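Tokens as discussed.
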């Protein structure tokens, strides 16, 4: 067998190995009830809401967000002080215990979509990728509801 043939076979084995690994891996996170609100232009940030459920056996740590809709997507936490004044700040990593779910919803955690690259138009959708500490990524399609929407459709 010549050298070229040998290296071709070696490459084929490596590719088969990768495919088997990818197939064996089952998703350990499911995203439910994703929604967002239409924006007025791009000057103000948008926000997206969803529930992340850990159906695996290990804790999942959400570290980052990615979307082509916003140049600076970030997980935020809204809190209200004793004077009733609300403010929000970066929430850092979100740890989801096995069997648990974390809700990003108005008044609490949310995906802040800062520096929108285009307006969020009612009836359209965009994809948001959740990045986890173990390198897993989950991409979801998020419907854009009306300005006054208060929760997911249906
Ligand atoms: Cu925010």
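Sequence:
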């Amino acid at each position: 067998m010549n050298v070229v043939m040998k290296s071709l076979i070696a490459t084929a084995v490596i590719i088969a190995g990768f495919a088997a690994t990818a197939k064996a891996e089952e998703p350990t996170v499911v995203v439910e009830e994703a929604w967002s609100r239409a924006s007025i232009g791009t000057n103000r940030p948008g926000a997206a809401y969803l529930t992340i459920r850990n159906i695996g056996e290990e804790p999942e740590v959400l570290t980052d967000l990615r979307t082509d809709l916003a140049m600076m997507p970030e997980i935020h936490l809204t809190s209200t002080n004793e004077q009733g004044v609300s403010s929000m700040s970066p929430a850092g990593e979100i740890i989801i215990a096995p069997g648990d779910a974390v809700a990003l919803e108005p008044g609490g955690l949310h995906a802040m979509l800062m520096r929108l690259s285009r307006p969020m138009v009612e009836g359209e959708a965009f994809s948001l990728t959740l990045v986890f500490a173990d390198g897993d990524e989950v991409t979801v399609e998020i419907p854009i509801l009306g300005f006054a929407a208060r929760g997911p459709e249906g």
